[in-house]
Each structure stands twice: as structure tokens, then as C-alpha cells.
Design a protein that fits this description.
mainly beta, rod-shaped, Porin, about 300 residues, 8-stranded antiparallel barrel
């Protein structure tokens, strides 16, 4: 019995010493979980790029009645639409902010050379009218002459360059692919030229005669040309895909509207011309030093 008590006393002494030693140990320090860097694509950053494509423009034109109409019985030109098409090429620069895993917003500006050119020749023919022998209308027509007048307008259109300054915003359908909408300000240099000419062929005998007399009256109006910087607006949409952390390619559509301008007011070439444009282009962008994609827990 004495031996059992001695053994139990020894075990109790060992347990007490162990508990005291454990109490003297410092608590285990807490370490915050490290920030995990995930492989992937980050859209935040400054970028520059180049683009090229094609543009389908339209100039709606209303020509004021010619001064010749005050003398000769010629109607006014009917308003018409003229296609102004051509290639475009230029460069862009911008900045993106990747808001979260899905949304990207940014700003972008571009400057474009434009090959959009077009020309048109319009003609109007009068009915037969009593005239003098030189083809000028005779307010008191005699029995000898009549004439037919032809008015020709030669017009040309030229969008020489344009630039846009836009906001962009879109959704990432996957880490590499951005679908976006865009819109903002458009500025462009638009050139319009016009000249009208009138000819009158004299016939006889009398008011109903159909035999040319050989006399042709030719009156040339002044040529006019104007190149103006026009301000308008633009909206569009596109898709951009990264094929490396720094490089991406895009396809984009823009609609531009430069409103209506009156050219050569108070002259024989006065016309109201509105211009709008549809642009399809492809581009490539380089993003400078994109940051790593960071997930915080």
C-alpha cells in the first residue's frame, strides 16, 4: 500500500510540472491570410492603338432656287440624298478602369483620316418658252422664236478627317472578352463645292417651232467651295478581346451625326447639307504595364 501511494504521488508531481510548463509558453501568434495573386487579365490601364475600316456616309441636300429661276422658267431642285463613302484609318488612345470581375468603364479619343468622297451632277430642263433670238425669255413673245433652257448643278462632297471623344462601358463575358457601348462628341472637317450653269437652245419658227437656229445661250454661275469644321455626336458598340496581358484586338461600329449646315447663304449656290455616317472598323491596342489581378480575402 505504501508503494502505491508513493507511485501516485510521483505521477501527480509530473502532471503538475507539465501543466506549469505549458502555462509559461507564449500564445501562438495570429497570422493574416496572404493576398492571393491569380493568373489572368487586368483591363485597368492606359492604352494606345491603331485602326482601319470603311465608312458609309450620307449627305442630305436641299438646294435653294437658283437666281436663274427668276429669269428662266426652271423649277427648283428636289431635295436628295447623296452617298459619301470611303475608307478610314487612324489611331486611338484611352484609359480603362476594371471596376470588378465583370464591369469595365473608360474614356477613349481617336483621330481618323477619311477617304469619303462623292460628286454628283444634277440637271433640270424647262418647258418651251417664248424668247428673243438670243434665248433670253421674251415677256411679249413674237411669232419667231422659242427656247428650252437646261440648268446643271455640279456638286462635290468630302469628309477629310474626323475625331471622336467618347466614354466607354461594358461587361466582361469572360476575363479576356469585353462587350461595350460607347458615345460622345464628334468633330470633322467637311468640304462642299457647287457650281451651276445654264444653257438655252433657240428654236423657230414661232412659238411652236422645233428647228434649232444654231444659237445657244450659255451662262456660268460662280464656283463656290467651303471647308468647315463641324461638331456633332456619336454612339456605337463593339467587342474587344485580349490575346495577351498587354495586347488586344477590337471590332467597332460608330454612328456619327454632324447636323445640318447652310452653305453659301445668299448666293446662287445656297444649299442646306446635313451629314451622318456609319463606320465599321477593326483595331489593335497596346496596354502599358497592366497590374496583376489581385483577389483579397
Amino acid at each position: 500500500m505504501k508503494r502505491i501511494l508513493i507511485g501516485l504521488s510521483a505521477v501527480a508531481s509530473v502532471l503538475a510540472a507539465t501543466s506549469a510548463g505549458a502555462a509559461d509558453l507564449a500564445p501562438r501568434p495570429y497570422t493574416k491570410a496572404p493576398v492571393i495573386v491569380e493568373p489572368g487579365y487586368n483591363w485597368t490601364g492606359f492604352y494606345v492603338g491603331l485602326n482601319g475600316g470603311y465608312s458609309w456616309g450620307s449627305a442630305n441636300t436641299t438646294i435653294s432656287p437658283s437666281p436663274f429661276a427668276a429669269v428662266f422658267p426652271i423649277p427648283a431642285f428636289v431635295p436628295f440624298r447623296q452617298d459619301v463613302n470611303g475608307g478610314v484609318a487612324g489611331g486611338q488612345a484611352g484609359y480603362n478602369w476594371q471596376v470588378d470581375r465583370k464591369w469595365v468603364v473608360g474614356v477613349e479619343g481617336d483621330v481618323q483620316w477619311s477617304g469619303e468622297r462623292s460628286s454628283r451632277s444634277l440637271s433640270l430642263v424647262s418647258g418651251r418658252y417664248g424668247s428673243f433670238a438670243n434665248g433670253l425669255p421674251n415677256p411679249n413673245p413674237g411669232p419667231d422664236f422659242n427656247s428650252i433652257a437646261t440648268l446643271v448643278a455640279n456638286l462635290s462632297y468630302d469628309l477629310q478627317w474626323f475625331a471622336t471623344f467618347r466614354a466607354r462601358g461594358g461587361v466582361l463575358i469572360d476575363p479576356q472578352t469585353l462587350l461595350y457601348a460607347t458615345g460622345g462628341l464628334a468633330v470633322g472637317e467637311f468640304k462642299y463645292s457647287a457650281q451651276t450653269n445654264l444653257t438655252a437652245t433657240v428654236f423657230g419658227p414661232g412659238l411652236g417651232g422645233t428647228t434649232p437656229t444654231g444659237v445657244v445661250l450659255a451662262l456660268a454661275g460662280p464656283a463656290a467651295s467651303s471647308s468647315d469644321t463641324r461638331v456633332g455626336w456619336t454612339v456605337g458598340a463593339g467587342v474587344e478581346r485580349k490575346f495577351s496581358p498587354n495586347w488586344s484586338g477590337k471590332l467597332e461600329y460608330l454612328y456619327m451625326d454632324f447636323g445640318t449646315k447652310t452653305f453659301f447663304s445668299g448666293t446662287g449656290n445656297q444649299a442646306d447639307v446635313s451629314f451622318h455616317d456609319h463606320i465599321f472598323r477593326a483595331g489593335i491596342n497596346y496596354e502599358f504595364a497592366p497590374a496583376a489581378v489581385v483577389a483579397k480575402y
